[in-house]
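Researcher: Here's the sequence for the chain we discussed earlier.
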Amino acid sequence: MTEHDQTDQVRHDQADQVRLRLDLAYDGTDFFGWAKQPGLRTVQGELELRLNRIVRPTEPVSVTVAGRTDAGVHARGQVCHVDLPAILKPPHGPAITSEEALQRWLPRALPADLAVTSISLVPPDFDARFSAIWRHYIYRLTDDPMVRDPFERRWVTAVRPSLDVTAMATAADQLLGLHDFTAFCKAKPDSTAIRRLMIFQPQRVGPGRVDVAVRADAFCHSMVRSLVGALVAVGHHRRDGAWFADLLDRSQRAGEITVLPATGLTLEAVGYPPTAELAERARASRQRRDPAELQDLSLAAEPNDPSRTVTTELAATPASASVPAPTPASDLVSAPVPVPALSPAQTLDPPTQPETH
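Model: Thanks. This is the structure I predict for it:
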């Protein structure tokens, strides 16, 4: 029997549980998003299918993810965690830890458009979703049909005409900080759209190529693609910076904002605090944000306010720069695979009527 054949017959040796962190990358084109859905191919479904074949648990294995990406959205630095028996015992051969079993069998078991890039043991307080302190996305655009590369059509969204990146950057700066982003989010009952936007920076990275880096403590549904869609309207001079800033005053979703296609969006990395702060961060993340935070911030914020200093420092990070380099595993900070230059695919023509989504 080959090593690969044994993966379908691994059994538990003891009930003690360990928590493992899995770092993932995937081409989202052929997935119906992250979350499992009956009869549809999803990232979570494919991953859990392989995990259950390897571990053969008494109860089905389920994973917790940092960010549930929508259909067609890609990832280089997705993070999830899974609780597994500490020791597994194959029918033939010595007992093996769950970490060793996954490192040995999981990479080869996954489909070609889904890869595990790291598997590590983490403390029980680590929660891939609630311990995260930021998520970092890049939306890739091309605005020149002469530089389109059909081999990279799945990763970049094409728009026209050429974008005014200077106008876009000026408008984007107005949204940094803690705000209510209801205008950019699909409504969800009993939820809030208050988020802290840390980085929102468009940058021309080559001929006909514009990358928009977006980092926040969390995102609501379709928020990144709506933010960039509104920014593109500014870059095409269909809207101005005042309109863009005024969107923060809306109490409902702004119907004139175009939600850009999933094609150009990639989750690049997820950040976590030091180990000692994991539990407190998870506790705080589970609490619903109070709109009074915004009022308190507006009353207290002054030019020398430390909260503004932090925002300014984060915003100064170039969009094309790598997200922070890896730190020791004990610090649990995700680092991205270096981001190559890409070029385009899906074309979004400027509308002749007001934008709708």
